[in-house]
Amino acid sequence: MTTAYDASEKVRDEVVLLETVNMKKLFPVKKGVFGRVVGHVHAVDGVSVSIRRGETLGLVGESGCGKTTVGRAILMLTPPSDGYVFFETPRIVLESFKVLQSIRSKFRQGKAAAADAVRLADEMGRLFGSAGCDVSDDRKKDLCGMADKIRRSAAGDKSLGDSAKWREAAPEALDDALTEVAKRYCINFKEKTEMKHLRARIQIVFQDPYSSLDPRFTVERIVGEGFRIHGPPASASKDVKFGETERIHQLIEQVGLSHDHLSRLPHEFSGGQKQRIALARALALEPDFIVLDEPTSALDVSVQAQVLNLLRRLQDKFGLTYLFISHDLSVVEHMSDRIAVMYLGKIIELAPVRELLSNAKHPYTQALIASIPIPDPKFKKVRKGIEGEVPSPIDPPKGCRFHPRCGLAGRECKTIEPLLVDIGNGHFVACHHWDYKVPPLL
Amino acid sequence: MTTYKKPVLEIRGLKTQFFLREGTVTALDGIDLTVYENESIGMVGETGCGKSMTAFSILRLVPHPGRIESGNIFFKESEEVRSRRLRYEAEAQAWYERQPLSKKKEYFATYGPRPRDRKGREMRFTRSEVEKMTPPEIAPHKLVMTYLSLLAKKIPDSDKIGKDAALRAYDLLNKSHDYMRSVRGKKISMIFQDPTTALDPVFTVGQQLREVISLHQGIYNRAELDSRVLKILRLVRLAAPETVMKQYPHELSGGMKQRVMIALALSCGPSLLIADEPTTALDVTIQAQVLNLLKEVVRGVGSTMILITHNLGVVAETCDRICIMYAGRIVEEATAAELFEKPTHPYTAGLLNAFPKLGERKDELSVIKGTVPDLMLPFPGCAFVERCERATDVCRKVRPRRVEVYPDHFVSCHLFTGGANDNRV
Amino acid sequence: MTMRRRLNDQLTRWKMSGGAKQFVVDLLERGSRNAMVVVGVSIITIMISLALLAPVLPIAPPNELHLELGENFQTPSSRHWFGTDSLGRDVFSRLVWGARISLLVGTLAVLFSLLIGMTLGLTAGYFGGKTDYIISGTIDLFWTFPAFLLALALGAALESPGLNTVIIAISISYWAGFARLVRGQSLAVRERLFVEASKALGANSRRIMFTHVLPNCLAPLIVWASIGVADAITIESSLSFLGVGTQPPAASWGYELQSGKTFIEEAPWIAVFPGLAILVTILGFNLLGDGLRDVLDPRLKGLRR
Questions:
Q1: Least confident of A161-175, A412-426, C28-42, C187-201
Q2: Distance between CA atoms of A235 and A237, rounded to whole angstroms?
Q3: pLDDT at position C76
Q4: Which of A272, A301, A372 lies nearest to residue B354, judging by beta carbons?
Q5: Which of A7, B298, C6, C39 is deepest in the core (most CB within 10 A)?
Q6: Share of chain A above pLDDT 70, in %
Q7: Searching chain C, which residue's CA lies closest to the CA of residue A278?
Q8: Of the candidates B46, B289, B317, which has its C-beta nearest A380's C-beta?
Q9: Interface pTM (ipTM) of the complex?
Q10: Measured between CB atoms, does C216 come within 8 Å of chain A?
Q11: C-alpha span between A98 and A258 (Å, rounded)
Q12: CA dihedral C261, C264, C270, C274 (to 10 degrees)
């Protein structure tokens, strides 16, 4: 098991398993007799993370910060309102995509210059000319052709006439290119039929074991439901007939239950066992990526330990990738390679585990770490907690969202929203005062 | 214990059972607990260990089909009565030990625990069964109590306390429902886990507080009530208490609602406050605030607190004494520092190890193998025997007695009692 | 002893296999402990047996007229257990044949309503939004039809009212009740986490609706259906009483009531026995419904009963 995140040791995958680019989820707030939309709940407001194959990304935050919504948006249970969720995308495609996006924002703001158009054309050429991008060949030719025209037009070539004026042609081409890539690689742009196949590769384990299993289904039916929907999983060989029962028996053993549990109903099991059943169900289709939405929050401590150990064992065995969502920092620390901290719909800090816990820069993260009760009375520090209450996500504060409760809030914190900056060591933080010297609170 | 600490609550041999069609579930199996004044005690355990049921039993709010089978709960017993009671109990024990074996068997058959038939009636033992019994060394609880009440009848009238009143006066399990109603909320209060469901959504905060205060303190003057309400809201550090008073529960956040609950509980100055997982439903940052508040306010009002939780970190911070419960029994009891430094019972040690601690990242969390036992099946020995790595033969057969293994540190485990049995019945 | 043991084993096996079999066996077990259910089921069983065995019972055919003097208006005797009516027909026999009609109408009407109502209610509750809006509107529309009056109107309007009109009329107005019930349940069940879990597995709406949502909606439906049958029988009897239901010479209980009404003083048995039959049958179904409601609801508490 990867016990520490070390970039040089791990082979950098050429294919990023999951990356969200500026994902947003807004829920409309309706009022009045006619259900007029008066505002939006900014549950997730521009989340961009990338997850490598085999790693565990921990997502921490308190209730209402949007972390559960992120998990469900990735699974398209509540599809994102905006943004892109890339799945199994080559790194070059992603990078080109981001470049193209930044150019598009420039065009949208009206600040584009001819140089941008040239850059655009270059990037498009690079993207669609390479073999890395898996788009149909004629589409590639079209887009490359468009890119060429734009380049020539921006270079001042008058021979193309009015129709190829780069100022109009460029945004159109941009949108085409972006949509093309999105359709090919993004989960939230897929058609329904394609989506179904994708579902086998991305799974979820829910927080509440008591209601995530149908009380009328036996364990066997629950675990085997995936097979009924999709047929045999990818690894089943084509010539040998797929033994569904054997596979279910295998799965149930792998999660630590026994065969005679298969004919029983969910209400006969304890919370920990129910989570194991849910895990078996998720593993049945041999997914690459599993979202774990607070899988142990409803369980007792000793059971939690069993389930967490199981999760790690399975991850090692099957090479799974996890997104581990929780509000309990100590559990997340135990399971993750990197941790992202969310507040009111935004990621305010992201770092490898050791780095985050020893060197947290954002005041909220620091307070979070300091708030955790430590089971040792010698550490009877005065846990202050944070003053104030979590504001409502319908009308988040302007500027930095944390500024009403932050001890370091300055003038710019009230007006300008801080962006995630890279401060080295794979550590990103979104705070204007991240380098302010505070005494350690741990 | 050199200084005499006055006990606020003394629970002896409390047994609560639920009579279901499928069988009888023993939620609490002989709890002995003493809560002293000005000392907060934490009850820690996992789901199903009986910690919430203890709280409900104290308040006699055990839901049907449960019933408090036996035991005593002495509340605010005066020193005199208590010392007298303890004296008489010792006398009863001595008398029992002097009895010949056949008599002991008889008494055990009559006053000991008897199995119930399907309809819940107690069954009688046949002659031969009585012959085969092994009576315990310690007198059955019921027998002691009967002896005591017989004795009490002999106490002369001139005695200050009076006849039967002496030993039963302070036993909550003997009191009428009306008395219990006057106790709940006024002398013993409880706050619950989920503040959303515990507060009535159709009444404002002010209305609910006024109701409690007027009911128990008998004050009906509106101005007086309002000033008291404001006072208590300020005590729990709610910002803008005048506004909060007029608000409905759903307009408040989780932390604020919990503070209102604390205010409700403390409004009549109870001697004992029972907090049942008060911060489990709250975020970690709010948790810290609320726990600090609880600690300070309870001390300020002069009450004692029983804090029930499954989180060892919370009790480490907030409580003076901690007792660990498992399967309806208390397995270990000590001061906070003692417990974490020297966890003696294997369950406590296992629990401490299973906690993922911040800053210590291990490859695998140590687990306690197995699962919580089914409370419907009676287990003669130690409840933890299936999951204990150091279990011995005697652990399976005999229930361990509570012994003082270190000063003021009690544990129920055969590893430390040398096999002494505890047929406390 | 082995028969019993084998039955037990089979039941346990069914119980373990989940789904419909488990539900039914569970129901049987719990039902058999509840007094109301037992009584209700007994009554219904008697009625059904009588109805089914009607052709083979050693009784006179229901339409056999005996207009000879002395044969009609006979008091109950060993030959005619419930006596004869004005046309000399054996009352008991007509009663038994009438049971066929009542039970047929009751069960068929409820069955049709159930099928229509269940599907529509399920769809409305599961999909919500516009579909729900449309279907709910339709439900509300049909909800307002009082079954009885509709049947009356239909019967009066049509040239030849009969069994079919009654069944159709009842179905038209009854399905709305079932639909509404199922819709409510469906709305609640679709919010539950296991539905999401199925979606995450890739199940399509149809699969989720029929394998997950529907089985969890069934409990109140069974209760309603039982009482619905009682209701349908009442309506049929009333319609026949008024002459717009099943037509003579079919031996509907309502018709018997009506024909016996005139002779209530001289030959009370002609009207009383059919009336009792209606009473008892409806009682049986109502008891079953009430008993099932008790069985299905508080079972979560596991109280010792």
A1: A161-175
A2: 6
A3: 74
A4: A301
A5: B298
A6: 87
A7: C197
A8: B317
A9: 0.81
A10: yes
A11: 48
A12: 60
